[in-house]
Write a structure and sequence with these properties.
- The protein is an alpha+beta fold.
- A two-stranded antiparallel sheet has the order 1-2.
- A hairpin with a 2-residue loop joins strand 1 and strand 2.
- The longest helix is centred in the N-terminal third of the chain and has 14 residues.
- The chain is flat and about 40 Å long.
- The two termini are 13 Å apart.
- 0% of the residues are buried.
């Protein structure tokens, strides 16, 4: 269960775009899909939602 919670927290963190709307100028970030080392323009989101305890 500890491993599951750790992985879930890490994946949830990756889904957070970063930055803070209350503090202008702070940089944000995003996990973006690539294909053949070219950006596709699609964000990778919701990885934590794919976790399944029944597997």
């Amino acid at each position: 269960m500890v491993a599951f919670e750790t992985l879930s927290s890490a994946l949830y963190f990756l889904d957070d775009p970063g930055g803070d709307d209350d503090v202008p100028g702070l940089p944000g970030w995003a996990l973006i899909e690539t294909s053949d080392n070219e950006l596709t323009g699609r964000l990778v989101q919701g990885l934590y939602e794919d976790m399944d305890l029944t597997r």
